[in-house]
Write a structure and sequence with these properties.
- The complex is a heterodimer of chains A (256) and B (378).
- By secondary structure, chain A is an alpha/beta fold.
- Chain A has one domain: 3-Layer(aba) Sandwich (Rossmann fold).
- In chain A, 35% of the residues lie in helices and 24% in strands.
- Chain A contains nine helices and nine strands.
- Chain A has a six-stranded mixed sheet, with helices on both faces.
- In chain A, strand 6 (167-171), helix 6 and strand 7 form a beta-alpha-beta unit.
- Chain B is α/β, with parallel strands linked by helices and 378 residues long.
- Chain B folds into two domains: 19-49 and 178-372, no CATH class; 56-154, 3-Layer(aba) Sandwich (abc type-2 transporter like fold).
- In chain B, strands 2-1-3-4 form a four-stranded mixed sheet, sandwiched between helices.
- In chain B, helix 7 runs parallel beside helix 10 (262-287), helix 9 crosses helix 10 and helix 13 runs antiparallel to helix 14 (348-372).
- The radius of gyration of chain B is 29 Å and the shape is elongated.
- Classes of the chains: A alpha/beta (256), B alpha/beta (378).
- At the A-B interface, strand 5 and helix 3 of A face helix 1 and helix 8 of B.
Chain lengths: 256, 378
């Protein structure tokens, strides 16, 4: 069984890294010593139920929060440092609707391109390409609030890709998206990985875990298992397609 | 290298500003709130709030019915200060008018008035409705002054009128006719500016937190200062437009003059607005919620600017604790600046302490707000 990163040769570079990260919000322990490493060109799935700590982990990696303990590295640097150059290389698609609903598709794209300091010619070519791969060309004048759930997520993705980041963090990108758009979105993501991008995707849907090169199972702030989906499934004597059963098995194992 | 960094900073700041302008254009209520409301309120308040008392309704009970008594009543009405709403001989009727609120004062000229005047030592009775203290005291003061004048005219020719031992001639400078509008418009202008500037800023920044777009912003290279300056620039422009509009309406509708240095006024307005925007920013950074931000903004800008700025209540008349508190209210210094430039013809030489106070407030607000404005979600 060969996974993509193995084909690339030994010692692949680690683009995203959490080591021993703890974080509490008041009495709630959101992360209880999580360590994970995402290699270059990998699709890493952070899988777990609501409240497992997925969003907190992603916010740490995006430099939006600091850990109480442990360290966070993105492309070898601290993403929470005020003057970090990491932000030029990082794309984030937050879980919440974070675009400007009263602005049109085009206005949102233009705004983010200006924040990343894109030249007019770069913006023109990238806008065209992103609109075409997200199939939003016909909706450029539509207000973001008036888009469907799937189109909104694709616009958020397009906004996060304008500056061609090396790493992309997606927090539940398929939440509230219909099955057809979900498949499209995943095809889009695979295309990005082909171009050499590193992806970390969080999802509560077990069926999506099998789409990732590697997954980390996050449960109550702890990473309870990590590995390629098929290997995790095989270790529990289950089919990879039935990842939900693998997850339930693992949780049951902890409760016992 | 440094130049390209500066260019990028400028680019991001302008991107924030351009986006804000798009928000404003998309939802013109902000603009109405900022521009139409102050003008509307200025006109309403300007005409509505008035401490001038003219045409006081007077009921006259003339029991003498003589030339002298008619002459006396004519004195009361000649200066337009009193309007006779009822004339008769029955004190009961006049009192009823007072009770019904149709008259604020009753003048009783007793029988034998003309005889007593000729002899010297005539008496009049003035009944005043004390329910409205301000009107009552003005009616009393005006009646006394009128009687004083009338008594000289009507008094016995042979006798020289009693010369008062000391005569005070009051001359009011800067606002000689004592018109409330001249006094109120500058105060009103700063009150409205304070309220709208703090409110709009608090709302616009809190909205980014509430909607979640702040999270997206923080994941891009845009810096805190770039976010703040970019977001506030359009509102600073709107605020300055407001100042211009309010002064124009003040001059056009109420005849408020501009006697002093406009540069000083402009500088004062700019500093005041920056302070107000800073206060709005601080509120939104702390509350991160539009509803709470609205309430805090209203409480901290509306009330102090209304009560502690000298807009309505003279600061000298406030109790000591409030007087001390008023030194922290920027509207107070802006009211001073506006009245100074508009009415007293002041310039930088007289108003620099006010400008220093406005600068200090603006710097403090921005420093505290930026200190609290972390580029993080936790």
């Amino acid at each position: 069984m060969s996974t993509p990163e193995m084909e690339r040769g030994a010692e692949p570079e680690v683009d995203l890294e959490l080591s021993g990260v703890r974080r509490a919000f008041g009495a709630t322990q959101a992360l209880r010593g999580v360590s994970l490493a995402v290699r270059r060109g990998e699709v890493y799935g952070l899988v777990g139920p609501d409240g497992a700590g997925k969003t907190t982990a992603i916010r740490m990696l995006a430099g939006l929060m600091r850990p109480d303990e442990g360290s966070v590295r993105v492309l070898g640097a601290d993403p929470a440092h005020p003057r970090t150059p990491v932000r030029e290389q990082l794309g984030l698609v937050p879980q919440r609707n974070s675009l400007y609903g009263d602005l049109s598709v085009d206005e949102n794209l233009r705004f983010f391109s200006r924040l990343f300091g894109l030249s007019a010619s770069d913006f023109t070519t990238r806008r065209e390409r992103l609109l075409s791969i997200t199939r939003l060309e016909r909706f450029t004048d539509r207000r973001a609030d008036a888009l469907s759930g799937g189109m909104y997520k694709k616009l958020a993705l397009a906004c996060a890709l304008l500056h061609r980041p090396r790493v992309l963090l997606l927090d539940e990108p398929t939440n509230g998206v219909d099955p057809v758009s979900r498949r499209e979105l995943w095809e889009l993501l695979y295309g990005l990985v082909h171009e050499g991008m590193t992806l970390l995707v969080s999802t509560p849907y077990m069926d999506e875990a099998s789409r990732c090169h590697r997954v980390g199972l996050l449960y109550a702030g702890e990473l309870i298992a990590e590995g390629a989906p098929r290997e995790l499934a095989r270790a529990h004597g289950l089919a990879a397609s039935n990842f939900e059963a693998v997850f339930l098995e693992l949780i049951r194992g902890r409760a016992a | 290298m440094a130049a390209s960094a500066l260019r990028r900073t400028l680019g991001r700041t302008l991107a924030m500003a351009a986006k804000e302008v798009q928000h404003i254009r998309r939802d013109l209520r902000t603009l109405y709130l900022a521009l139409a409301m102050p003008v509307l309120m200025l006109v309403l308040f300007g005409f509505g709030i008035s401490f001038d008392v003219d045409h006081l309704e007077l009921a006259v009970v003339d029991q003498d019915r003589s030339t002298a008594s008619r002459e006396l009543v004519r004195h009361f009405t000649a200066a337009q200060e009193f309007t006779v709403v009822q004339e008769g001989t029955s004190p009961e009727e006049a009192l009823a008018a007072l009770r019904r609120g149709q008259a604020v004062a009753v003048l009783v000229v007793p029988q034998g008035f003309s005889r007593d005047v000729a002899r010297g030592g005539a008496q009049l009775q003035l009944l005043v409705d004390g329910a409205d203290g301000n009107t009552a005291s003005q009616a009393l003061a005006k009646a006394q002054a009128l009687v004083e004048v009338a008594s000289r005219r009507l008094g016995p020719a042979g006798l020289s009128p009693r010369a008062p031992p000391l005569e005070v001639r009051v001359r009011t400078l800067f606002n000689p006719t004592g018109r409330s509008a001249l006094f109120l418009v500058p105060g009103l202008a700063s009150y409205l500016l304070a309220m709208v500037a703090v409110l709009i800023t608090a709302l616009t920044v809190a909205r980014e937190w509430e909607r979640g777009s702040m999270e997206q912003l923080f994941a891009t290279p845009v810096g805190r200062v770039e976010i703040v300056v970019g977001k506030l620039l359009p509102y600073l422009a709107i605020g300055l437009l407001q100042v211009l509009l309010v002064l124009t309406v003040g001059a056009w509708v109420f005849g408020v003059p501009v006697r002093g240095n406009l540069g000083t006024l402009g500088l004062g307005a700019l500093l005041f607005l920056i302070g107000m925007l800073g206060q709005g920013l601080l509120i939104s950074v702390v509350t991160r919620n539009q509803v709470v931000a609205t309430q805090v903004a209203t409480m901290t800008s509306l009330l102090p600017s209304l009560l502690l700025s000298g807009f309505i209540f003279p600061i000298e008349n406030l109790p000591l604790p409030l007087r001390l508190l008023s030194t922290l209210i920027p509207a107070r210094y802006f009211v001073d600046t506006l009245r100074g430039v508009l009415l007293r013809g002041n310039g930088f030489a007289e108003l620099w302490p006010q400008l220093v106070a406005l600068t200090l407030f603006a710097a403090l607000m921005l420093a505290v707000a930026m200190g609290r404005f972390r580029r993080r979600l936790d």
